[in-house]
Design goal:
This protein has one domain: Nonribosomal peptide synthetase, condensation domain (Chloramphenicol Acetyltransferase). With 456 residues, it is an alpha+beta fold. Helix 5 packs across helix 9. Strand 13 and strand 14 form a beta hairpin. A 6-stranded mixed β-sheet has the order 8-14-13-11-9-10, with helices on both faces. A 5-stranded mixed β-sheet has the order 5-6-7-2-12, sandwiched between helices. It contains 9 helices and 14 strands.
Length: 456
């Protein structure tokens, strides 16, 4: 669902059966572009200091699905000549989505591979899978895998928050949580996205580095690495946010990586999901974000050497100022979830099979102009995720698909004053050794933004 569509069954228990809903724009585009080689999964992992009781957790999760009954969907049978795909709300699960993995030295690593490689099927309700992984005799991880055609990370996190409340036996009376989006009151004309000299140029692509090593059989199409970092603490007087610091760090990372791999300098453009939904029980469940592209080109031509090993701190500060202005302008502009082009492609004027062929063709043609990477930042996790006797979440990581031609996604969330970053990449682009090296470059580039001060 998009952020503008209300969930007709939120907080009202089971949905009537059979009820069908046409796929919104985001869902349809994702459905058209599915491929077995690059599964469209979102993964969320919640680290707990204890281990929840299996029966109580299983019951709490099933009840949470009933509370957020929009998650209880499967794709209705369809033919190519129909005008749209439809979700069928089932009211009850078709399959048991909860499983438990015993402790082992690589139990979490295997669960992560499953989360990246195996999509929950769209033809069974719900298109989610919750795996409880025992790290040792005490600690555990809740690993939730979502099919991104149906759901996004904020929706999955909201369902886990409801599960935690029900597990503690406190019902679902969580107080209203403010929307993530912050209102911007500046004048749009002053904050218009600039950098027009680079607007027609093709965005940078991260230089591939697979080391000539073949991918091992049975590995996921995506690689992933999680980082536990200190949360940036910018100058309170500075106009930029942690999200702006992540954007600048990501652009510096791409520039430095490509420079070290002999790639020509190109403008970096980063796709950023923006989510206006509230975080209480009325939150629409589904795909509720809209995408915007942030150009990361410096306004000062003298700053073109930013990707250098130790760039001028003043140049980094100027880029932070520029990025802050651009992101504020983008947040203030109304926008369709995937832009007007996607809205036109998914208009029910042609049979869904024809629209699918057109969408895939447009995607291939537009590949050279696709943004450099995707950066998704949930910010501070707005839920306590307190599972009673199993404890409160100590860390929350999540990741978004990293399909080519981008092949790279970064995801961030903060819990307990720490920044939890996930780098996820297509194995067509990087192998695990290169992915770890890229993560080190990102850490170093992020540290360059820590000492910046508000004066440009």
């Amino acid at each position: 669902m998009t952020a503008l569509e209300a969930d007709p069954f939120a907080g009202h228990g089971r949905a009537p059966v059979p009820t069908r809903l046409a796929f919104p724009t985001v869902d349809e585009v994702s459905r058209h572009c599915l491929g077995d080689d690059e599964p469209e999964t979102v993964h969320i992992e919640v680290h707990l200091p204890g281990r929840p009781d299996a029966r109580r957790l299983w019951e709490a999760f099933r009840r949470a699905l009933l509370v957020h009954s929009r998650i209880l969907v499967r794709q209705a049978p369809h033919h190519w000549y129909r005008r749209c795909y439809e979700w069928e709300l089932t009211g009850t699960p078709d399959v048991d989505p909860v499983s438990f993995a015993g402790p082992g030295p690589d139990a979490l690593a295997r669960a992560r591979v499953r989360a990246l490689a195996l999509c929950p099927p769209l033809y069974r309700s719900p298109p989610v899978r919750l795996e409880v992984v025992a790290l040792d005799a005490v600690r555990s991880v809740l690993l939730l895998t979502l099919h991104h055609t149906a759901l996004d990370a904020p929706s999955g996190l909201r369902v886990l928050a409801t599960t935690a409340e029900l597990y503690r036996g406190e019902g679902t009376a969580m107080e209203q949580v403010a929307p993530v989006r912050r209102a911007y009151t500046g004048r749009r004309g002053d904050d218009r996205v600039r950098g027009g000299r680079m607007r027609g140029a093709r965005p940078a692509r991260l230089a591939p580095d697979t080391g000539g090593r073949p991918t091992r059989a049975g590995t996921a199409a995506n690689g992933m690495l999680v980082l536990d970092l200190p949360l940036p603490q910018p100058d309170p007087a500075a106009p930029w946010t942690v999200n702006d610091q992540l954007l600048v760090a990501a652009s510096l990372m791409v520039g430095r990586w490509n420079q070290s791999h002999g790639r020509p300098d190109r403008p970096v453009r980063i796709t950023v999901p923006m989510d206006d939904r509230s975080r209480d029980l009325t939150m629409p469940i589904g795909n509720g974000t809209r995408l915007a592209e942030v150009p990361m080109t410096p306004e000062d031509r003298s700053d073109t050497r930013l990707p250098a090993g130790r760039p001028d701190p003043a140049a980094v500060t100027r880029l932070l100022h520029t990025t802050a202005r651009r992101t504020r302008a983008l947040k203030s502009q109304p926008r369709a979830p995937l832009g007007p082009g996607a809205a036109l492609l998914t208009a029910p004027l042609l049979p869904v099979g024809v629209r699918g062929a057109l969408t895939r063709g447009v995607r291939r043609a537009a590949a050279p102009w696709t943004s450099t990477l995707l950066l998704s930042n949930l910010g501070r996790v707005p839920y306590p995720l307190d599972f009673g006797d199993a404890g409160r979440a100590r860390a929350v990581w999540f990741s978004a698909p990293a399909r080519m031609p981008r092949g790279l996604s970064l995801a961030a969330a903060s819990t307990g004053g720490r920044l939890h970053m996930t780098l996820r990449w297509s194995r067509v682009l990087l192998d695990d050794t290169a992915g770890a090296a890229l993560a080190r470059v990102f850490e170093d580039c992020l540290s360059l933004t820590y000492g910046s001060r508000s004066a440009p």
